[in-house]
Amino acid sequence: ATLAGQPQLFVDAHCVEDPYPPQLWSAAAAYFEALPEEERLPGGRYSCSRMLAARGLPFLEGRSLGQVAHIVQLAISHRKLLGYSEGFLVPYARSKSMVKERQAESGPCASDGDDAGVVATWDHLRDLIQQLLKSVAAEGKQSVALSNVKFLFHARFGLELRETTLGYAKLSELLQDPRLSDICEVRLQSAGHVLVGVRVRNRISLAEGLRLTSSEDVAVSGETMRSRPQPLCIDEIASPPRALDGGAVVSDDDAPGSGTWQDVAAMPSTTPFRMTFPPT
What we know:
Strand content: 5-15%
Order of helices and strands: HHHEEHHEHHEEHHEE
Low-confidence stretches: 200-227, 249-266
Radius of gyration: 37 Å
């Protein structure tokens, strides 16, 4: 929610847009790379932002705390200036994220240890994700927190979900692979990223909905569709009809079986009527 008529000063720390100048990122990269090896920043984005803002760093001068939090998030997720190691933020080159990225770049078959009990194939992964989402839905839940996905794989299937084995450095990137797009998707909610199932909707085209189903509606190779009224020709319009005994009304050139004029007596009407034409 925002205040009506007031300038929008709120900063979305999860926004992927980068409005900051290159000079800021160059200075930030130099600062993080120069951090002593023993120094680690708080793992929480908010705590890390407060610490950096309190240090009075020149490249953060004039930035609000919200902007600093956004810069920290971009430094982790897009700029790869910071990464996680044992729950702390450290320069990316010393982070576990860097190790996982190198393992992922080695190929989908890369291994970082014992592969026993590891989800190793895409077919296997697809089946397990579908089972996980179905079991969660049966419990009345609509989504799974991304931070719980690995735990649930181990708890429910006795298997380890290792993204580097499947060629990705991040779990979120793995779950957004096109090969999984028809069964699940990653969404950002107020509490963080979650995994949700993709609902398949049956789409009925307008043409399918308007398809004629009556046995009378047949038109193949130019044949007349009998259920539709046919236009009169000029001669029929110009020639007034004549009445016959029994109430039938026909035209002078009406041929038996032509179907141009119908028997009035056979028509379902409560009030008898006679078809007439004005003189021409």
